[in-house]
Design goal:
UDP-n-acetylglucosamine1-carboxyvinyl-transferase, Chain, 2 domains, four-stranded mixed sheet, 14 helices, 30% helix, binds ligand EPZ
Length: 425
């Protein structure tokens, strides 16, 4: 295994180009199972997770080729409708093949994803939604066997929690169902808008894009997709926080500021200068090099457009360098504070009380480098931010977590002036 080594304490300066969104690429790649033919997806990041779902789909008979950031996917010859445990356990988003397989073949056998570092993460809303559409879901031996004779029938589906992948799964099932499906309390993340745009290019009929009520008129058939993946708002937010945490100045390009409504306000509240242009965000925290530290800011994670849970760990790293006490309230996942113990190894003063963490900032020189361990994707990016800001050397082990969701991270950080490299663990 490899570790990431960072010599910290250097302000980051310059531009960083954002890649396509992991959490859009995964549902959109899965949706190419809906119909045979050659689908063209542009701006697709080359990540551990996108390689995983393509490998899963290859086992089903899908063929694909990558030309730079463009993927051409041909799902004409489906030979299997199964997603085995070995694949699903490495990436729970594999459950996103359920909806398209049920719509195309009327059957699917998917390993239950099981929990992960950040929580139990059940898929009950997915299964309840499919059952509303007429599907029979049998759970046995750790697998879901879902089947329906003929086409699914439109229905009204209500989610107790606006689940992102449940909304995506049910959308891809409903587009080929008979009649109208209404999804109430649907998630509103931008990645769902990207999926809706793709499905509409394929001939689907969907109303309510961007709202919590989606109405789908089922159609009899679809055509192959032509779509571009939206920029990764979580990657963009991660680099904004990294530049700010080092007291640097720079520009995050090829991104959509409107996809980060909460983070940009929270960075401004911390005393950082943030300027939004059409496809880029400028950030300037150079004044923090002389001042006593960032202003303390509270965050509460919420479904979009609230503060993104996927940017909670990163903002906490910043708040360890504030000049007061900030409260981080994680309302989406029950165990998403795995980064706290590692940040404490670097000198952070954090106390956890249930879903809340109180972060007592220690000023801009509050962190010192140390050997730490990545536990999940976003926790690992929080440790990178802390390592960039801390004085001295930080070694981050198990960086395969990082490679799941950040394309060319070492190159992008080096371009910003960071002293960072990989070593054998
Ligand atoms: C998506 O996960 C993202 N993953 C996650 O990003 C993100 O953190 C999450 O949405 C929230 O924004 C992808 O898009 C591939 P949820 P998802 O269903 O869909 C509960 C990353 O770092 N729930 O919106 O799995 C669930 O336990 C990853 O890129 C049920 O109880 O999240 C959680 O508490 C991490 N039953 C809450 O809802 C269900 O059937 C929200 O989860 C489904 C969800």
């Amino acid at each position: 295994m490899e570790k990431l080594v960072i010599e910290g304490g250097k302000p980051l300066y310059g531009d960083v180009k954002i890649s396509g969104a992991k959490n859009a690429a995964l549902p959109l790649i899965a949706a190419t199972l809906l119909v045979g033919g050659r689908h063209h997806l542009k701006n697709v990041p080359d990540l551990r997770d996108t390689r995983t779902i393509l490998r899963l789909m290859e086992t089903m008979g899908v063929v694909w080729q990558r030309n730079g950031d463009e993927l051409i996917i041909d799902s004409s010859d489906l030979k299997s409708h199964e997603a085995p445990y070995e694949m699903v356990k490495t990436m729970r988003a594999s459950v996103l093949v359920l909806g398209p397989l049920l719509a195309r073949l009327g059957k699917a056998k998917i390993s239950l994803p099981g929990g992960c570092a950040i929580g139990a993460r059940p898929i009950n809303y997915h299964l309840l939604g499919f059952e509303k559409l007429g599907v029979t879901c049998n759970l046995e031996n750790g697998y879901v066997e879902a089947v329906i004779e003929g086409r699914m029938k439109g229905a009204v589906i209500y989610f107790d929690i606006p689940s992102v992948t449940a909304t995506e799964n049910l959308l891809t099932a409903a587009v080929l169902a008979e009649g109208t499906t209404t999804i109430k309390n649907a998630a509103r993340e931008p990645e769902i808008g990207n999926l809706i745009d793709m499905l509409i290019t394929m001939g689907a009929r969907i109303e309510g894009r961007g709202t919590d009520k989606l109405v789908v008129e089922g159609v009899a058939s679809l055509n192959p997709a032509q779509i571009a993946i939206i920029p990764d708002r979580i990657e963009a937010g991660t680099y904004l926080i990294a530049i700010a945490a080092t007291g640097g100045k720079g520009k995050v390009t090829h991104c959509k500021p409107e996809h980060l409504p909460a983070l940009l306000e929270k960075l401004r509240a911390a005393g950082i200068i943030v300027t939004e242009n059409e496809n880029e965000i400028e950030i300037d925290a150079t004044h923090m090099q002389s001042e006593a530290g960032f202003k303390e800011v509270d965050i509460t994670t919420m479904p979009y457009p609230g503060y993104a849970t996927d940017l909670q760990a990163q903002f906490m790293a910043l708040m360890t360098m504030s000049n007061g006490v900030s409260v981080v309230n994680e309302t989406i996942f029950e165990n998403r504070f795995m980064h706290v113990a590692e940040l404490q190894r670097m000198g952070a003063d954090i106390r956890i009380n249930g879903s809340r963490a109180s972060v007592k900032g220690r000023g801009i020189n509050g962190l010192a480098g140390a050997p730490v361990m990545a536990t999940d994707l976003r926790a690992s990016s929080s440790l990178v931010i802390a390592g960039l800001a801390a004085s001295g050397r930080t070694d981050i082990s198990r960086i395969y977590h990082l490679e799941r969701g950040y394309e060319f991270m070492v190159e992008k950080l080096r371009k910003l002036g960071a002293s960072v490299w990989k070593e054998k663990e």
